[in-house]
Design brief:
about 0% strand, two-stranded antiparallel ribbon, globular
Length: about 350
């Protein structure tokens, strides 16, 4: 008699033998069903994890190659002497400058395409990630965040205005964060209402009105006394400098849309999607449908007329692209560690990525 039979037998020992036999048989049958369902669920979870693992593996190589191309380009931009000179200026005077600028745009769009391809293929799979997939997904999330998140710029702007207007600097980080959101929202609304994209383009009266509006919004959000009108008037031009920070955040939904523009259905094979090559990308930018080109213009705003050695307090895009550079290095390391034996990432790229990450933490 098995262990389950003994336990059940002890529980029903005082009953007639026929009843005991029936109860034991029913209980054993129930246990068999329950254990069978538990085993089936375990096998299903294992199968789901394996499917997710295989999907990540299918995209590991193109992601690694795309990350490598973008990483070395951004390393050149930030580390080489005079790096990124071809991003500066609205008009590129030489074919080389034009190529380098468009190539940089392509490498960012290419990586967004492969990330989108992976996300779309994972969309209908069970939400269960193997450990190595979780680490890679975290690295992908940091890349997405680097392009999309500007909360620190909002905080920095408010802190600058607080110093300018001698507002109580004892406010909590939470209060300053809330003030940053409020100031950013009212700033963008005011510029839109006045048909302007930059506070410096406003009339003198418009600048003063904007300063007074934001001083009121900020002090209300911080819960402190109002800034004297005379102080706001005297510091108006300096306030415009703090408010004129260049920004080009690529929100998550925008990133997905850019990725979709870059995708094509793959020929029958392992993956569902492929990313277009440079030839098709250049044609898209020159002759593509306006509904597609608009997304490339939005992405290009991150690097268009960007002085990488300029004042970071005046152009948030420098820090944004720097964060993208670091996030790309993190993706390279995560992709390699996910499966070191079959990694296509070269030792030179891996070493350079590790140096970049170490330097960024000092």
């Amino acid at each position: 008699m098995g262990e389950h039979h003994i336990i059940v037998a002890k529980a029903v020992g005082g009953l007639p033998i026929q009843v005991q036999t029936a109860l034991i048989a029913a209980t054993v049958s129930l246990l068999t069903v329950v254990l069978g369902e538990a085993f089936l669920r375990m096998r299903t979870r294992r199968a789901a994890k394996q499917t997710v693992r295989e999907t990540y593996q299918k995209y590991a190589d193109p992601l690694a190659l795309s990350c490598t191309d973008l990483f070395w380009r951004l390393r050149e931009v930030f580390n080489a002497k005079g790096g990124g000179f071809y991003l500066k200026g609205k008009v590129h005077l030489t074919k080389y400058e034009h190529y380098k600028a468009l190539s940089t745009l392509y490498r960012i769009a290419n990586l967004l395409g492969w990330i989108r391809a992976l996300r779309r293929e994972l969309l209908f799979l069970p939400r269960t990630d193997p450990e190595e997939a979780e680490k890679l997904d975290s690295a992908l999330q940091r890349f997405t965040l680097a392009l999309a998140e500007g909360g620190h710029i909002e905080v920095r702007r408010v802190e600058s205005l607080m110093r300018l207007w001698a507002v109580d600097e004892g406010a909590s980080p939470e209060a300053i964060g809330r003030a940053g959101v409020q100031v950013d929202r009212r700033l963008k609304s005011y510029l839109h209402e006045n048909g302007s994209s930059n506070p410096n383009d406003l009339s003198e009266s418009g600048k003063l009105q904007l300063s007074q509006l934001l001083a009121s919004v900020m002090t209300e959000a911080l819960g402190c006394q109002s800034v004297p009108v005379g102080v706001v008037s005297e510091t108006c031009n300096r306030a415009m400098a703090y408010l004129s920070v260049g920004e080009a955040w690529i929100y998550r939904d925008w990133q997905a849309a850019i990725g979709d523009v870059m995708l094509r259905e793959a020929q029958p094979g392992a993956r569902l999607f492929e990313v277009i090559g440079y030839k098709d990308f250049e044609k898209l930018c020159k002759e593509g449908q306006e509904s597609d080109r608009v997304w490339m213009r939005r992405l290009n705003a991150v690097i268009d007329d960007l002085d990488i050695h300029g004042d970071r307090s005046r152009d948030a895009r420098i820090e944004q692209l720097s964060a993208v550079y670091i996030a790309t290095a993190e993706m390279i390391r995560a992709l390699h560690l996910a499966d070191p034996k079959r990694s296509v990432i070269s030792s030179a790229t891996l070493n350079a990525a590790n140096v970049t990450l170490t330097t960024s933490q000092t």
